[in-house]
């Protein structure tokens, strides 16, 4: 049973370009979370999605960032017109039920996409 | 949101028991406490989860006092491969299921 798959593992973009990060959740999981991690720092929540719905995007910058989780296919985190400050590791996680609910299932993380903006 | 506080770093030696304590003073009634482990260049990995008292699995134990304002992750007989960052996570059901990671504890296990 494959875990959470993220691609690409490494992505280099020049300032002003677009970055598209993909995440395929574990089989049967319909809850997807995106986190960002700067070097030597903890993970910061960005957005929580269920199939075709954004449930909570309070941690995601209002401009240039967007996320989707279509009915078919992986979840996509899209960063338009990247700047150097966007350089970070972006982690996707999935869960079977709503994480945090009583009797919940824990988050399963992918190994991240490391974005470098030059 | 239930905020967590952990020591920034800890050192230990192989074979010792390591206890990492996390403070979460404003934990809510329905919140669960979950610990994750993260190695460099990898995503966090679930270790253990609990609500109250004590939980034990093949990897670790989790001790939660009656007031639930703190929790302690206990790693028995650590090895070099346990060197990692450990995150205490308190699930918050009142904020769109947004899960808040603390700063983590960087554990260094020495030979």
Q: Topology of this structure?
A:
The complex is a heterodimer of chains A (118) and B (111).
Chain A (H helix, E strand, L loop, with lengths): L4 E3 L2 E4 L5 E6 L6 E7 L5 E8 L2 E4 L8 E4 L6 E5 L8 E8 L12 E2 L3 E5 L1
Parallel strand pairs in A: 2-11
Antiparallel strand pairs in A: 1-3, 3-8, 4-5, 4-9, 5-6, 7-8, 9-10, 9-11
Chain B lengths: L8 E5 L4 E6 L9 E6 L6 E6 L2 E4 L4 E4 L5 E6 L8 E7 L9 E2 L3 E6 L1
Parallel strand pairs in B: 1-10
Antiparallel strand pairs in B: 2-7, 3-4, 3-8, 5-6, 6-7, 8-9, 8-10
Task: Give a concise summary.
Chain A has 118 residues and is mostly beta strands. Chain A has strands at 5-7, 10-13, 19-24, 31-37, 43-50, 53-56, 65-68, 75-79, 88-95, 108-109, 113-117. In chain B, strands 1, 3, 4, 8, 9 and 10 form a six-stranded mixed sheet that branches. Chain B has a four-stranded antiparallel sheet with strand order 2-7-6-5, with no helix packed on it.
